[in-house]
Amino acid sequence: DVVMTQSPDSLAVSLGERATINCKSSQNVFYNYDNKNYLAWFQQKPGQPPKLLIYWASTRESGVPDRFSGSGSGTDFTLTISSLQAEDVAVYYCQQYYYTPRTFGQGTKLEIK
Amino acid sequence: QVRLVQSGAEVKKPGASVKLSCQASGYSFTDYYMHWVRQAPGQRPECMGWINPKNGVTNYAQRFQGRVTMTRDTSISTVYMELSRLISDDTAVYYCAPEGLGSGSYYTQWGQGTLVTVSS
Fold first, then answer.
1. How far is CA A85 from the centre of its chain?
2. What are the tens digits of pLDDT across the range A8-58?
3. Cα separations in angstroms, A79 against A47, B89, B102
4. Quick count: other Cβ atoms within 10 Å of Cβ A17?
5. B31, CA 20 to 30 Å: which among A14, A18, A20, A63?
6. A4-21 confidence digits (pLDDT tens)
7. Strand (E) positions, chain A?
8. Predicted confidence band at B102 (pLDDT cuts at 50, 70, 90)?
9. Other Cβ atoms closer than 10 A to B85
10. Could you tell me if A40 lies within 8 Å of chain B, comparing CB atoms?
């Protein structure tokens, strides 16, 4: 299975500051045929299912605030929250959906400093 | 709007089986593969496999082969996931999630989850 590795495991950021989460895939998730990276980012709060934030590595899902952005290609990806808000406290997961089975990173727990 | 309603929490003994359901509405049920994803406490989500509701074809992750069975009932837009020979490590929240409701095969929607507890 493709291994997704996130860093850091946990992160404490002050309100209004930038938060950056990294994700590395053990295999390339870029598909030359359609020129897309099959990489998604999810936010999960306690007792809730994961919520889609970003797909195709950098496309924001409808309704997601524009302080969330994704970047990267191939095997290395980043989720950035430009100005942390209190409601962003959660666990964040990257997921590749190119290979079967789809696999998730181990998660990054984001807290307020 | 898309709704995915899952069955209620289950408590099972080791060695038993559990069968969960996921009823979909708000989209064309047979047009989108349904995936099952589980998440043990404090762990990352883990994809178990999928079923094509149109024809019942399934694809299971290798680690669940022989223990998982996914079926569907198109008359009530419901998919089922049965897991047998339960062990304590199967204690998790189990989610259903259709692929492809967006522009690609990522998950845009999830069921609310069903907690399965395996304990003697």
1. 17
2. 999 999 999 999 999 999 999 999 999 999 999 999 999 999 999 999 999
3. 23, 31, 20
4. 12
5. A63
6. 999 999 999 999 999 999
7. 4-7, 10-13, 19-25, 30-31, 36-37, 39-44, 51-55, 59-60, 68-73, 76-81, 90-96, 103-104, 108-112
8. confident
9. 11
10. yes
Report the C-alpha gap between B73 and B80 in whole angstroms: 8
- Across the interface, whether the CB atoms of B102 and A97 are under 8 A apart is answered no
Place of tokens 């009932």: B73
Q: Which of A2, A98, A102 to substitute to test the interface with B, most B CBs within 10 Å?
A: A102
**Of A47, A34, A4, which is closest to residue A22 (Cα–Cα)?**
A4
> Choosing among B52, B65, B106, B115, which should be mutated to test the A contact, i.e. which has the most A CBs within 10 A?
B106
For residues A54 and A79, is the Cβ–Cβ distance under 8 A? Answer: yes
- A101 min Cα distance to partner chain B (Å): 6
pLDDT per residue as tens digits for the range B36-71: 999 999 999 999 999 999 999 999 999 999 999 999
B93–chain A nearest CA distance, Å: 9
Residues in chain B, total: 120
Q: Identify which of B47, B99, B103 has the shortest CB distance to residue A101.
A: B47
Of B62, B42, B52, B37, the closest CA to residue A40 belongs to B37
